[in-house]
Amino acid sequence: MNRKTLLIALLVCFLVVAVPVSLYGQTPDTPAPDAGQTFGDLRDALPTDQVIIQFTDAAAEAALLSARNEGPLPELSAAAGVDVAYFRAMSGDAHVLKLTERLPAEKVAQIAVDLTAVPGVAYAEPDLIKTTGLGAAQMPAVPDLAPNDTRYGDQWHYRYTPGTSEGLNLEPAWNISTGLVSTVVAVLDTGILNHTDLAGKTVAGYDFITDVFTANDGNGRDSNPADPGDWILANACFAGSDPSDSSWHGTHVAGTIGAATNNSLGVAGVNWNAKILPIRVLGRCGGTTSDIVDGMRWSAGLAVAGVPANANPAKVLNLSLGGFGTCTSTWQSAVNDVVATGATVVIAAGNDNANAANYSPGNCNNVITVAATNRSGGRAYYSNYGSVIEVSAPGGAQSFANDPNGILSTLDSGATTPANSNTYAYYQGTSMATPHVAGLASLILGMRPGYTQAQVLSLLQSTARSFPAGSTCNTSNCGSGIVDAYQALNALNVTFTDFVYLPGVFKSAAPPPPPPPTCTPQSGESNNINDALITCTGHTATGQVSAADRDDVYKIMMQANQHLRIVMTGSGGDADLYLFPPGTTDVNTDPAAAASLNDGNDELIEGTTLVGGYWYIDVYSYSGTTNYAVTATVTNMLTGEAATLLLTPENTQPTSRQSK
C-alpha cells in the first residue's frame, strides 16, 4: 500500500544600537560614558542627522520640549553642543530629534550620550541608517526577461539533494501543508511592485518612510507601500558614497515567502497561500531606526500615532535589513512589544563576513537571526556568523551577475523607476536566506496558530539539518543547522503506519449547524451526507459495508479546537476510514480532510478541529464484506496543549477511492 502524508497540506541593514543607559539624575560633573562602549564601533556606520530620545516622565518631556515649535531646543542643544530641533513623535513613547546636517555616526552617538546626561532624559541614541547590504553581497542584477512556469526547476534552494542542493527540503513538506490564507507575513523592506507573480498575494500595507528624499515618491508617510525605486547617484547618501541602481529588494524577498505558486508562471513561494503585508521602511540610502520600529509595531497590529489601524496584523515579520551596532532600548522594546502580540520576528544576520553580535537588530533578544549557506551547505562567503545566529538557510553564493547559484525570485528590470517587466533574477545574501525561514515559520503557524516565537524557534532548531561534512558552518558560527521544512512540519504531524493525510486545496464550507443540546446516537442505514447518522463521543457504531453497499456515513458535532480520535476495527474484507469537514455534500465527489487506508480494517484518524459543526465519518468498503465497529472520541484541548493534525475545511484534497 502506498503511504501518503498530510498536507492540510540585503535587506540586511543592521543598526548600531546598544541598550541605552539611563543617566537621569546624574550631575553635570559626572563623567559621561564613552559612546563606543554604549553603542559599539560605529566607524563603518552611515552618517545620520537624527537622534531618538525618550524622557523619564511627562513633566520632563513637557519641559525639555517646550520650545518644540520655535526652532532649536535650548537645553538639549546646549548639552549636545550643536543645534537640536524637534522632528516628530514615534512609537514606544519616544521622539525623534533633528540635527542641522548629517554627521558621522560616531559623532551623533556622542551627542546621544551627552543628551542622555540631561536630567529628565531616560535615554538617547543615534537614529542609525539601515540598508539592504546588497553592495556587499549581490552581483549586479541581470534580470531574466522570459519567466515561465518552468522556473521552479531553477529554485535549487527549495529542494534537498545532499551535498549539491542543500535547500529548504520543501517538496515533502508541501505534502504536509502548503499554508493557510489566514496567515499574514509582513515584509519590512523597500516596498513591493505590482508583479504578476504576486498578484492577489498581498493585503493593504503602509509606507513608513518619513524623509521625502529617502522615500523618493514625492512625499513622506502614506498608505501606498509601492516601491518607486531606490537608485542613487554618487555622493547622494554621504560624501564618497557610490551610485547604485534600484534593487527591488522587497519584491525579491516577498516572492521567496509567498509568490503565487502552482499557477504555471514564474517561481514558487515557500508558502503557497499566505498573504504578504508590505511595509515600506527602506528607500534611497536605507532607512532610519525610528521608521523601521514604527513599521514593526504597526505590522503586529499595535497603534502608531498618525497612522490608521492595521486591519491585517502579521504573525511573522521578515526584516532583511540591519547595520552596525548593539541592540538598543529602541530596538529591544519594539521587538518585545511585537513578540508580546504573538508574532515571530525573523532577521538577517548581515553580509560583511563578520561577527553578527555587532549588528542590530539581529543581535537583539527574542528574534530569530539567520545566517546564509551556499548550495553545498557551507557558510556563504559574505555571511555574518557567531553565537547570536539561531539557524542558517540557503542564501546563495554568486561568482558573477545572475549566477544561478543565487536565490531566484521576483524582480523588475528597471534601473531606476519600475519597468513593470515582471522579471525574475538571482540574488544572494542573508536577506535572501531570511525569507526562507520566515516562510517556513508561516507554514508552522498555519498548523499551530497559537505557537509563540519561542516555540517556533525551538521547532526550527530541533529539526534543523546538520551541516554536511566539510562545511565551513558549525553550531558555533552558523546556529543549530540548516532549517529543514519537512522535518519541522513532520514533527507537528501525527503519523501512523500507512496512515494517510490528504493534501490541501481550498473549499468553501457552508455555515455549520448549531450544536444540539444533547447527543443521541442514531442507528439505521446511511449511504451519504444527506442521511448521515448521528454518533456521539464514546459511542461505538457497528455495521456492515460491501461491494453492494460501500458507504456507511455518520456525523458528529464538534466545536472549534476540540480533539477528535476515530478508531475502527472489523473482520472480513478491507474497509477504509474517511473524515469529511463541515459543508461536505457528497462523500463520493467532495474532498476529505483525512483518511486511513490500511490493509485490513484497523484504521485510525486523529486530529484537532479548527472549525465547528458536523464532521462526517465515512466507512468505505475497499474490497469484500466487512463487519466493522467505529468509535469516535471527542475531548477538549488542555490549556497549552499542542494540537495534533489540524482539521479544517481548507485543508482538504480529493483522493481516489481506489488508490491503495
Overview in brief:
This protein is α/β, with parallel strands linked by helices.
Q: How are the strands of the largest sheet arranged?
A: 9-10-8-12-14-16-17
Major β-sheet profile? 7 strands, parallel
Which value, in Å, is the CA radius of gyration? 28 Å
Work out the number of β strands: 30
Distance between the termini: 5 Å
> What is the overall pLDDT average?
85
Task: Name the beta content range.
Answer: 15-25%
Share in helix: 10-25%
Textual characterization of the structure:
This protein is of the alpha/beta class. Helices cover 17% and strands 23% of the residues. The strands form eight sheets. The protein has a seven-stranded parallel β-sheet, with helices on both faces. The protein has a six-stranded mixed β-sheet with strand order 20-26-25-28-23-21, with no helix packed on it. Strands 22-29-24-27-30 form a five-stranded mixed β-sheet, with no helix packed on it. β2 (84-89) and β3 form a beta hairpin. α8 (249-258) runs parallel beside α11 (430-447), α9 (289-299) runs parallel beside α10 (329-340) and α11 runs parallel beside α13. The N and C termini lie close together (5 Å). Mean pLDDT is 85; it is low at 1-30, 135-147, 494-517, 637-645 and 648-656.
Features:
disordered N terminus; 660 residues; seven-stranded parallel beta sheet; 13 helices; 30 strands; alpha/beta
